[in-house]
Amino acid sequence: xxxxxxxxxxxxxxxxxxxxxxxxxxxxxxxxxxxxxxxxxxxxxxxxxxxxxxxxxxxxxxxxxxxxxxxxxxxxxxxxxxxxxxxxxxxxxxxxxxxxxxxxxxxxxxxxxxxxxxxxxxxxxxxxxxxxxxxxxxxxxxxxxxxxxxxxxxxxxxxxxxxxxxxxxxxxxxxxxxxxxxxxxxxxxxxxxxxxxxxxxxxxxxxxxxxxxxxxxxxxxxxxxxxxxxxxxxxxxxxxxxxxxxxxxxxxxxxxxxxxxxxxxxxxxxxxxxxxxxx
Length: 279
Description:
Largest sheet: 2 strands, antiparallel
Shape: elongated
Radius of gyration: 20 Å
Helix content: 40-55%
Strand order of the largest sheet: 1-6
Order of helices and strands: HEHHHEEHEHHEEHHHHEEHHH
Distance between the termini: 10 Å
Number of helices: 14
Strand content: 5-15%
C-alpha cells in the first residue's frame, strides 16, 4: 500500500462506528495542551507517591537507575506521549523536550547509536520501566538539555473522541448524517466544514489567524509516517490552498485540514481501528 493511500473511506466509516457505538458522555474539556517536562515529573511523582528526597534528586538532574526513577520516567513518557509500552519510543516527540547545541553536529548520531544498543521492546510490563528510562537517558546524555518551557502534548485517543463528540454536538451533526455523505457531499456541507474547523481549534493544530501548525499536526496525527515526507506534503498542499478564497472560515479550515490530509491521518480519519493483521 502506498504512503498516501491508506483507504480513507474505510477509516472514516470506522471512525463513525467508534463514535456511534461508544455513546460518549462528554465530561472533560478537550483542548490544546502545553506542558513542561518538570510539570509532568511533579504530576507523576504525586501519582506514584515518590518521596520528596528522591523527587528533589531527580529534578536536580541526578538520574539513578532505581525502580522508582525508572517508572517515574516511564510515567512522564506516557503523559508526554513519547512512550508507549506496546510501540516503544516516539523519538520525534521526546526530542521536543530538549534544546540542542547548534555547535554540536553529532548529537543525533550519538543518540541513535545509544538507542540502537538498547534491547528490543518486549510486551513485558516488568521491563517497560527500564527500557523507557534507558531510552530517555539516550537523549538526556546525548541529544541536548531539557527545556524549561512548555511543549505541545498530543491528545490521546479518548481525548480526541471527546473533542470530536463535542464538536459534533456543537454543530448539530450526527454520526448517521456523516455516514450518509459521499465525498462530494462532504465538500459541499457547511456543517462538516465547521466540524473539521472545530476539531482543529480544539486540538490546537489550527487557528483562523495562523492557519495549520504543521509541527503540532505531525505530533498529533503523524505517528508512523516519515516526518520529512509528511511535512513536505503538508507545506506543498497548504501553500497551494492557503491564498484561495473559500468564503467562510469553516470552508477554509476544511480544505487546509482535511482536503490536504485526506489520504493520511487527520482531524476526521485519525480514529480508525487498527487493521486486524496489524499493518
